[in-house]
Write a structure and sequence with these properties.
This is GatB/YqeY domain-containing protein. GO terms for molecular function: carbon-nitrogen ligase activity, with glutamine as amido-N-donor. The chain starts with a helix and ends with a helix. The protein is mostly helical. It has 7 helices and no strands.
């Protein structure tokens, strides 16, 4: 079942349950996926679906930080609920230890030795971890392992 089909089914369920927060978030996700489908001109592949969801999650996490800094607890609570809904559609995220293992393996594969090889490592590791791990976590792990 495609992401759009799943979102449509869940949107109907949220309407029936009168869950306004979940309904609005699902509508935003559905709109983002539909826009991406239109822009690409074909049905989304599973990787493209994950990319759309990851982008939406990142936007919400960035907004969450801004609203926390601005001391807006009402909006923070709303965004936290949206983040939970978006995460429900993403594949399970890898733990920090799993990310370290994959990054260490990639460093060995590309023969990186110094912090100057950061770009080479990130370019090789991000396709493996796209949608499975937060980019900030991957970035910090790569820096940490290259510094040692």
């Amino acid at each position: 079942m495609s992401l759009l089909d799943t979102l449509q089914k869940d949107m109907v369920a949220a309407m029936k349950a009168k869950d306004k927060q979940k309904l609005s978030t699902i509508r935003m996700l559905k709109a983002a996926a539909t826009n991406e489908k239109i822009n690409l001109g074909h049905d989304l592949t599973p990787d493209e679906e994950v990319a759309v969801l990851a982008r939406e999650l990142k936007q919400r996490k960035d907004s969450l930080e801004e609203f926390k800094a601005a001391d807006r607890p009402d909006t923070v609570a709303s965004l936290e609920e949206e983040i939970k809904v978006v995460q429900a559609y993403l594949p399970a995220q890898l733990s920090e230890e799993e990310v370290k293992s994959i990054v260490a393996e990639t460093i060995a594969t590309v023969h990186a030795e110094t912090p100057g090889d950061f770009g080479k490592v990130m370019g090789a590791v991000m396709p493996k971890l796209k949608g499975k791990a937060d980019g900030k976590l991957v970035n910090s792990v790569v820096k940490e392992l290259l510094a040692n």
